[in-house]
């Protein structure tokens, strides 16, 4: 099992960049790895109530559909 730290710096102003660290963390979980997330700068706003649910990137599923797998697996999120 490999530990991987994904760093997020984008928030609501760039839904694509805000979504990808969570998407990659979910993929790492599916691969049997141990992801961790570090939210910096604008990305810290994603943890405010209601914000995460409003993020929709072009292409991948909405962040509200990705986040539950990350949270259920107990992925550490550092803010």
Structural description of this entry:
This protein has 79 residues and is of the alpha/beta class. It has one domain. Helix content is 33%, strand content 18%. The chain contains two helices and three strands; from the N terminus they run βαβαβ. The relative contact order is 0.26. The model has no long low-confidence stretch (mean pLDDT 96).
Topology:
Blueprint: E1 3-8, H1 15-30, E2 34-39, H2 63-72, E3 77-78
Parallel strand pairs: 1-2, 2-3
Helix pairs in contact: 1-2
Keywords:
79 residues; alpha/beta; 3-stranded parallel beta sheet; 18% strand
Helix content: 25-40%
Number of folding domains?
Answer: 1
The biggest sheet, with number of strands, parallel, antiparallel or mixed sense and barrel status, is: 3 strands, parallel
- What separation lies between the terminal Cα atoms? 24 Å
Give the uncertain stretches in residue-range form.
none
Q: Order of strands in the sheet with the most strands? A: 1-2-3
Which outline best applies? Answer: globular
Total strand segments: 3
Strand content: 15-25%
Which structural class should the secondary elements be placed in? alpha/beta
Mean pLDDT: 96
Determine the number of helices (DSSP H or I, runs of at least 4 residues).
Answer: 2
Order of helices and strands: EHEHE
Radius of gyration: 11 Å
